[in-house]
């Protein structure tokens, strides 16, 4: 393995005063909230929703429902290909810290949660789109997601990751609106009711190349399942508080960004097909520009092509081919 593929990590607090840095991937959930005239109210309300949901799920020894609060850190991962110190912004994830106000302890929560990647933007917005531009039927290009998957696994196995985080990441996403999900008999006290998809999605296959498995659970008092991508054993490798830290954070983001699914007025039944055109939903009054977000994904995919894929294509291909 090449030594010159190195990662550096920067941590930024996600709080009411958060402002995205110039090199932040602006399609990221938290960056989108933190712009415009409503930025402080957006952030304050989102954090309040996260804390309320955490206490609702962690309700033992928590009579007043105010024992815990959650702090969030944005972890920005930069990639240095040549070992020259010239880096490319590759990945952003979220780390949760649980504050127990009863014991005055700070507990490390889940790392991962939200997942943003410039190379993923390139794969979906540039590579996949160009491949299908003049094709009669949709298809996936050869090796799709291979480089991204290897870069992600290289990061998770790196000394930098191990020095900063105690456990492997769990990434939590929304369910796919073109799949049907079947409720099972399996129920977990924190994760809730498990669902199974009717078929595998492109997102599932993409994350599989990152080394991640997926399971779908609808937590207590939720209205739709969430997708949990993980290494190892999701149900036994993490504590209840760690699982709750992911649920409360990512369910809050999904209520803001996909209210048609996650703020629907009726919960998912035994057979569930998510619907982004569902009118029977509530809104959170947190301002968010969904159209801008999709435009930025395209722009950032092109940025990745010009600044990473094209200039380092040979080096990246050689590294990927030799990666064990």
Question: Could you please describe the fold and organization of this structure?
Answer:
- The chain has 324 residues and is an alpha+beta fold.
- It has one domain.
- Helices cover 35% and strands 25% of the residues.
- It has helices at residues 29-33, 39-57, 118-131, 146-156, 159-164, 202-208, 240-257, 259-262, 290-309, 313-322; strands spanning 6-14, 68-80, 87-100, 105-117, 170-174, 181-188, 192-197, 213-218, 226-230, 271-272.
- It has a ten-stranded mixed beta sheet with strand order 1-2-3-4-5-9-8-7-6-10.
- Strand 6 and strand 7 (192-197) form a beta hairpin.
Helix content: 25-40%
Strand order of the largest sheet: 1-2-3-4-5-9-8-7-6-10
Per DSSP E runs of 2 or more residues, the count of β-strands stands at: 10
Taking the sheet with the most strands, its summary is: 10 strands, mixed
Quaternary arrangement of the chains shown?
single chain
Report the sheet-strand fraction: 25-35%
Please outline what is shown here:
With 324 residues, the chain is of the alpha+beta class. 35% of the residues lie in helices and 25% in strands.
What topology does this entry show?
Layout: E1 6-14, H1 29-33, H2 39-57, E2 68-80, E3 87-100, E4 105-117, H3 118-131, H4 146-156, H5 159-164, E5 170-174, E6 181-188, E7 192-197, H6 202-208, E8 213-218, E9 226-230, H7 240-257, H8 259-262, E10 271-272, H9 290-309, H10 313-322
Parallel strand pairs: 4-5
Antiparallel strand pairs: 1-2, 2-3, 3-4, 5-9, 6-7, 6-10, 7-8, 8-9
């Amino acid at each position: 393995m090449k030594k010159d593929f190195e990662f550096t990590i920067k941590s930024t607090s996600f709080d009411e005063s958060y402002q995205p840095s110039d090199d932040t991937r602006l399609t990221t959930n938290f960056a989108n909230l933190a712009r415009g005239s409503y930025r402080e109210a957006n952030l304050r309300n989102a954090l309040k929703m996260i804390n309320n949901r955490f206490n609702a799920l962690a309700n033992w020894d928590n009579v007043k429902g105010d024992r815990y609060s959650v702090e969030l850190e944005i972890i920005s991962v930069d990639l240095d290909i040549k070992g020259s110190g010239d880096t490319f912004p590759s990945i952003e994830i979220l780390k949760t810290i649980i504050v127990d106000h009863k014991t005055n302890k700070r507990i490390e929560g889940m790392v991962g949660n939200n997942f943003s990647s410039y190379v993923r933007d390139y794969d979906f917005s540039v590579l996949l789109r160009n491949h299908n531009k003049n094709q009669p039927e949709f298809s996936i290009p050869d090796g799709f997601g291979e480089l991204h998957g290897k870069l992600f696994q290289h990061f998770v196995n790196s000394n930098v990751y191990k020095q900063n985080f105690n456990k492997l990441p769990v990434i939590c996403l929304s369910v796919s609106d073109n799949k049907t999900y079947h409720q099972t008999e399996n129920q977990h006290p924190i994760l809730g009711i498990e669902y199974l998809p009717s078929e595998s999605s492109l997102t599932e296959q993409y994350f599989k190349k990152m080394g991640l498995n997926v399971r779908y659970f609808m937590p207590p008092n939720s209205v739709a399942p969430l997708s949990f991508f993980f290494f190892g054993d999701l149900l036994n490798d993490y504590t209840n508080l760690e699982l709750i830290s992911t649920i409360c954070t990512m369910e809050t983001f999904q209520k803001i960004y996909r209210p048609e699914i996650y703020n629907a007025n009726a919960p998912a039944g035994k057979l569930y097909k998510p619907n982004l055109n569902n009118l029977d939903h509530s809104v959170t009054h947190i301002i968010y520009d969904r159209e801008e977000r999709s435009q930025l994904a395209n722009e950032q995919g092109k940025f990745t092509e010009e600044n990473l894929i094209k200039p380092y294509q040979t080096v990246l291909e050689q590294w990927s081919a030799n990666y064990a």
